[in-house]
Hints:
six-stranded parallel sheet
Amino acid sequence: MTKVISEQSVLSLLRLAGYSELAYQFAKYIERQDNNSDPLIVLTAALLSEAVSKGHVCLNLARVGELGMGIDELMPESVTLWVAKLRESHLVGKTGDFTPLVLTDSGLLYLYRYWQAEQQVAVLIKQRLKPVPLQNETLLKQYIANWTSSQPGLDWQKVSVLMALTRQFCVISGGPGTGKTTIVLRLLESFFNQDKTFRIALAAPTGKAAARMQQAVANVSQSQYKGDVQAQTLHRLLGITPEKEQGRYNKERPLAVDVLIIDEASMIDIILMSKILKALPKTARLILLGDSQQLASIDSGAVLANLCRADAGFSEGFAEGFLLLSSQTLPAVKSRSLMADSVVILKHSYRFDDQSQIGQLAQSVQAGDSDKFINILMRTDEAIWWQKMDKASIQQRVMKLYHAFFEAIKTHQDPLTCMQLFEKTRVLCALNNGPESVDSVNSLIERALAKQSWRTHQGFYHGRPIMVMKNDYNQGLFNGDTGLVMNNDQGVLAACFLDNRIVRWVPLNRLPAHETAYAMTVHKSQGSEFEEVCIILPEQATALLTRELLYTAMTRAKVKIGLIATEAILIQAVTSQQDREMGLMMEID
């Protein structure tokens, strides 16, 4: 350390530097357990706890300065010295030791729980990185021949399907409109064509994503095949409850599935991924679909993004097999990566063409090109970017966004019409609380509606949109579901939800925890799609503003976006990248 300080001084400095209560208390716990009374151990424990709370699986000692932890003057002079000091503590173990902290030879420091989860994920994925023979190659060749491609050149959807059919583990990543839903449908058809007795499970991290998945595959699973394939949340599939955190299924009691297809896999953290893999039978296949460019999970880890970084390509053997089945040439590479033949990055967007504003903006964000991003915003035919951040300007914009919905409520349109109008648009915010947040936007809208004689002062009022915040399996409601409070046929206020174009009513006293939902966070919007979104970013800089957040927000829109943000904040968002520390690919490869 550049300063000689005591353990008590470290704890005081943590308070002054604004470290979380969890980090402070963990450092205090380590202080009590540390026999050597070394303040560096206490400081490192706080740094690790803070890093995990920010989504990192581990603390990379060589890159601590990049995390902006606020106490750089207390850092050791070198990583070598830091590692040597940590190795002297009985609280810091090597790989395989059962200690509160685990330090790997690569200089990655873990809490034991996260080290164990990452090891389990790496081992169980490696066990599945192997080919699986086709049961009926002739049938597949005929199926692919009858599959008409809508784009010239190499069809990556076909590559994805062959990969999933011939590998025990695979990852398919692509942005909105790249055909991931089509691939799920094709996979169901192909698997059942190969063997109609296949037990296939569909799952997603959230209830809303699972419902969208079920809606997309309903016709295929129910009309074409005897087996009724039902999409469900991962927590429900695994039997995870507050009382049974590890779930009902494990190595000794595996899931009764042959194939598990998971959508929106970018939301899966390292702990949940370990539970999924432990619950699968040894012979089961796992197919992960998602968008590796999106926001990562709320909890620690960016599993999908980490796996997609492998960029291992395809072997000559796989390319030859694809050529025989599809008559298309797939570029082959000589790769030593175990992930070869297991990752497809979908490149063609069927939703956004080269002239699409949203597509161009998304590409510039992905590239971290803030100049190009700003130029596209400024040359649009219709204004879509506003830099005025005062309450009156924001209120005007969001009220205009929901104009058609408000008119439908005021003219007593039927619930289905009102729900469909509301689901066309959404305000997305980076923050839940504070200025330019979900709370402030909801308040601005309700104040404006109160001036139009809406009864927004009441807890429930006709036309109030709500979002469910907690799963309730008895009511069939899940975290992220949106509904409207409306007068039912009897003139009584109740909540209505839309299930595949059918309105379902839930009594107000049966609703699980919920919030007003004119605005929602970008995190909560994952797995949703709207015709138009209005994105509001805070005027003050925050670490949450990254290109992943902006990309996720913009690609929720299918037709049109609006941006309320200052130029400085947009530049920060485009040029800042969410980079979560984890050692998963080091362990796999």
